Amino acid sequence: MAFLSAAHSGPENVGPARSGSSTAQGAQTAVAVQQAAGADPYFPEHGDPRYRVHRYELVLDYRPGPNRLSGMARINAIAGRSPLTEFVLNLADFKIGRVRVDGRQPHYTHRGGRLRVRPAKPVRAGAAFTVEVHWSGNPKPVNSPWGGLGWEELEDGALVASQPIGAPSWYPCNDRPADKASYQISITTPSAYAVVAGGRLLTRTTKASTTTWVYEQSAPTSSYLVGLAIGKYQTVVLADPGLGGVPQHAHIPAHLLPEFSRDFARQPQMMHLFQQLFGPYPFDEYAVVVTEEELDVPVEAQGLSLFGANHVDGARGSERLVAHELAHQWFGNSVSIADWRNIWLNEGLAKYAEWLWSERSGGRSAQQLAASAHRLLSTLPQDLRLADPGRKSMFDDRLYERGGLTVHALRCALGDDAFFHMLRAWAGLHRNGTVTTSAFVSHVARFAAEPVDELFEAWVYGAALPPLPGAETRAAV
After folding, report:
1. Residues 6+ apart with CB under 8 A from 459
2. What is the pLDDT of residues 53-74, one digit of tens each?
3. Could you please report the per-residue DSSP string of 305-339?
4. What gap in Å lies between CA 404 and CA 427, rounded to an integer?
5. In angstroms, rounded to a whole number, what is the distance separating the alpha carbons of residues 302 and 284?
6. Would the pTM of this model clear 0.85, i.e. be above it?
């Protein structure tokens, strides 16, 4: 996750997924997980499990000077297994101009970041319905235990970093990670500003002094992963799709280009490696944004990662973070968690991707990095359980390090062939879906020659730090 720095306030044996039937099986599993997921135990006021959203269409107008946002959202959704007499959208403290459900005016209230809507006629169980919401105001971060999250006004522009509950700071949504939907986002701003969002740029139209940017993200996306940056950026190509790779672009302040060119020079190689290890890149393209502001840490969004100026030093000082955010496109974004108790699946796999990149690019081996992480954790309190770290500790550094160590322990136990087959199958079977820790445990067991129950019990469900995995790892794939 990322925050603006304080200075700115701000079971049967299966192999790798290759066939359409395997993909379909994964999609069915994902739907089942999503339908079974109830209110998020860490954030019960965020999200409404009584329905799920299929698509968001957002039409926004933003003026950076006065920090003024007006918007219209058309939300296509499907009722759950019971008739929907009311439902909730999460939306921060904006002025509501109009609300419609299937074209009819409902009764609604808007308090405490919750837009509670009672349709004029209940929506039948399993029926599709459309909600339209108009809102306006001055967007600002929403309060959280980690400070302000979501829409952040910058010195010259804006940035959205929503993990985990910041999405309602700028648009109405069913704010739960399991409810993934496609997005079309149209944003009009003064023409001096560039707009970057996750997804494919469909059109850019200039009229008088404003420009409208329209982006399409067709892959199912969790609300917190809808990324956005508005600023004065120079766009550079990192990888040309004509060369057979994934299209990769960067949007950066012009004065940072010399340092950026070195710091991100190896990102295309990372993409190539991760596709070998994890399977095909799950989205149409990948973009990075570097803001003028400093960020405590970078943030992943769907098809997009956001970095601060402090992550560009011309010495590849943050290259592990470049790898980490790229890996999240597989683990966290495409394969998403059903609720926030499972966050170690995102961060542990992304942390291990850092170690894999180091190992493959001439740096320290995964075993050496695991040993360093283990030494660090041995000096810290051992009261964190990966399977349910609690809201207070869901972004604790220990979760990242222990998550990486858990993945390394799996590699040592399975051996490289089975381990990397397991990872590719996990990313392939659950592409565009949602998962849980228990689903991961069952998945790993299919690739293990020996039972892995004790390994998971020690590393994931227990709190005491197990011994350092000591088996030598062989070269992968």
Report:
1. 386, 402, 405, 406, 409, 466
2. 999 999 999 999 999 999 999 9
3. EEE-GGG--SS-TTHHHHHHHHHTTTBTTTBEESS
4. 17
5. 10
6. yes
| Structural contact between residues 139 and 151, judged by C-beta atoms closer than 8 angstroms | yes
Rounded-to-integer distance, Cα 39 and Cα 49, Å: 6
Give the residue ranges of DSSP H helices in 13-59.
20-36
- Architecture per CATH, domain 12-48+333-477, reads as Orthogonal Bundle (1.10)
The structure tokens 């799709």 sit at: 241
Q: How many CB atoms lie within 10 A of CB 102?
A: 15
Q: What is the pLDDT of residues 230-267, one digit of tens each?
A: 999 999 999 876 656 899 999 999 999 999 999 999 99
Q: What are the extents of the domains in the chain?
A: 12-48+333-477
Task: Retrieve residue 446's tokens.
Answer: 């299919």
Task: Collapse the DSSP code of 119 into the 3-class scheme (helix H, G, I; strand E, B; otherwise coil) and give the result.
Answer: coil
Instruction: Please classify residue 408 by burial: count the beta carbons closer than 10 Å to its beta carbon, then call 0-12 exposed, 13-18 middle and 19+ buried.
Output: buried
What are 48's two structure tokens? 């409404």
- Indicate the helix (H) or strand (E) that contains 238: strand 234-239
Quick one: average pLDDT of 354-364?
A: 97
Q: Is the pLDDT of residue 308 over 60?
A: yes
- CA end-to-end span of the chain: 30
According to DSSP, residue 143 is labeled P
- Residue at 157: amino acid letter: G
DSSP state of 4: B
Q: Where are the alpha helices (DSSP H) in 251-384?
A: 257-263, 267-278, 319-327, 344-360, 366-378
pLDDT band at residue 398 using 50, 70 and 90 as cut-offs: very high
